[in-house]
Amino acid sequence: MIKMLVCDFDGTISGGKASLVTDFKQFIERNHALSFVVATGRTLPSICDGLSSGDYPAPTSIISDVGTQLHHGKVLSPDLGWHSNVQQQWDREHLEQLLECLPFVGDQNGLHQGEFKLTFEGKLVPSHIDAIHEVLADNNHKVDVTYSHDWFLDITPAGIHKATALSYLLDSLGIKPQEVVVAGDSANDSTMLTLPGVNAVLVGNHYPEVSHLAERPKVYVAKGHHSNGVIEGFEFWQRSHAVS
Ligand SMILES: [Mg+2]
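A: This is the predicted complex of the input protein with magnesium ion.
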């Protein structure tokens, strides 16, 4: 039985016609026993703005800032256990100094910076990413580097991402990965889409950067775009659980 639906926001449940969002809200309301979790690269204020910009259903939990923040319920209670995990090995000021010295690293938009996440914007090529990894390793920073949408460069504490936040959430709720459907569209969704055991959905409008995930056995590639694709994928996995 599927107990939880975890969705990225931008490009996954957002985008397309406004009526798709209303259909999605009705779908979540019909499946009222389902936990609905949003997992996003956005900061908490930014995802709250996003969710209030349309007729989106209220999530039971929000994983934000690419997994570095976790909040629960309508009142958005911070998960202090998760946040203390994340606080280790993070020297924001030094990271900013190092990255600002690299001429190809773009600007930081204040709206996209989180307590444990730095985001730089601009087009990068693979040799740039290699150089970023090198300078961070030379300075003993244990961080992850994620480049997505061919524009956003996220720097986050090592091993802290959407999938580790999701694993922590599942453990705390006693839900198995096999009981979860995860939907996304871009590189910062890769970790949660490939979390062992989960039932993954790539929406039809996914970026080429995650097309290779389609070859994996537990990834369903939807024909539908945005939230239509999420519902299609969820129903596919629900049917396959019913017959297994
Ligand atoms: Mg997205």
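The CA atoms of residues 8 and 184 lie 5 Å apart. DSSP finds nine helices and eleven strands in the chain.
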